[in-house]
Amino acid sequence: MGDFRFNEEFFPDPKAMVEELRDMRIELMVSIWPQIALNSENYQEMNQKGLLVRSEYGVEVQMQFGGDSVFFDATNPEAREYVWDKCRQNYYDYGIKVFWLDEAEPEYKTYDFSNYRYYDGPNVQIGNVYPQKFSRTFYDGQTQAGQENIINLVRCAWAGSQRYGALVWSGDIHSSYTDFRKQICAGLHMGLAGIPWWTTDIGGFGGGNPDDPHFRDLLVRWFQYGTFCPVMRLHGDRSPQRELFSKKTGRKEMHTGAANEVWSFGEEVYEILTKFMSIRELMRDYTRVLMKEAHEVGSPVIRTVFYEFPMDKATWDISDQFMYGNDILVAPIVELYATKRKVYLPDGTKWVDARDGKEYEGGKSYLVEAPIDTLPIFLKEGNQAYLIGKL
Asked: Which of 4, 229, 253, 306 has the most CB atoms around it within 10 Å of its CB?
């Protein structure tokens, strides 16, 4: 983030572009980073007004991704108003209603917490509140503009972020089964902490070659998991990467990754991914009920098994299964080329395998087959029966 505006070389009429996309039922989201480049037209004014994070010592450079920069001080109400006003003029007034708030920790080049001072105090004491205040910057502005049902994608959160419409994603994680397994736990913990909106970069962000069979296996299993997350979202920087050069200067600017659409991983994978997109669509009404619950009473959308079955002691140590709402038990496949796994079905209810309608008794573990085109999904008391035979 630096000059808060569309690049006129690529977007000569941004309002018309936004309206055209909306006519196609596509909602444009703009990515905003909390960095202020030292060569930004806004840097001097923000610096003089005390709207930037201060360094106690050393060079006043806090991040160097994309050039030397510092962070705006999101704990400062005046800084929040300044940033929102720029974003309102250059994005919101063109019709942009959702924002992607990246680097929300914020991401310092050197994490020397004692060196950075905020309006609210030293980083070492209050630094964790920054992502909450970053979300608040946009929530307050959008609320004042009269917008309702505000939700923005953000890379980090802190206690209370949910009140500012924070949809948290788990950041730039690696494309590996190790990282995939961690996402399941992280999402469940987020829900227990009172932040129900959660998503991940399906397939991981860093790495992953669409032509690599290992990565294709991971992507499919992650996509299946994503089908039963609050938000289902495919994103990542795939290999091999390609350098990008400015048309005006000829200089190398950034890079772009390989293709990452659902049709980019081969025909077999494409068929599986579209199958699960259809399953997600089948669950639209059920998912909306869960979202309404989350909004009104704070219930997680994805829930630890013990959240729904607290009296069953066997559920308290389960970290690789979860409930999607109160009816659907999800058991992701979390090992390379695995085609079976053990599933524990909680006590006190009957369970129906969504794939074939077979009924199982609760309070027991079962070894369940799971070829690459499916995963173990069980329905409590046979509820959500429209899924039977679709998985």
From this structure: 229
Q: Phi and psi of 69, rounded to 5°?
A: -155, 165
Query: How many Cβ atoms sit within 10 Å of the Cβ of residue 92?
Result: 19
The Cα 324–Cα 307 span in angstroms is 11
Domain boundary among 120, 153, 169: 169
Annotated active-site residue 102? The verdict is yes
Query: How many structural domains comprise the chain?
Result: 2
User: Of the residues 19, 112, 120, 172, which is catalytic?
Assistant: 172
For residue 260, being part of any structural domain is answered with no
pLDDT tens per residue across span 78-113: 999 999 999 999 999 999 999 999 999 999 999 899
pLDDT(1) > 60: no
* Domain harbouring 136, CATH code: 3.20.20.80
Give catalytic status of residue 172 as yes or no: yes
Average pLDDT over residues 149-162: 95
Q: Which two tokens stand for residue 219?
A: 């992507």
> Which residue in the list 102, 103, 237, 327 is annotated as catalytic?
102
Name the residue range of residue 327's domain: 307-387
Whether residue 68 lies in the annotated active site: no
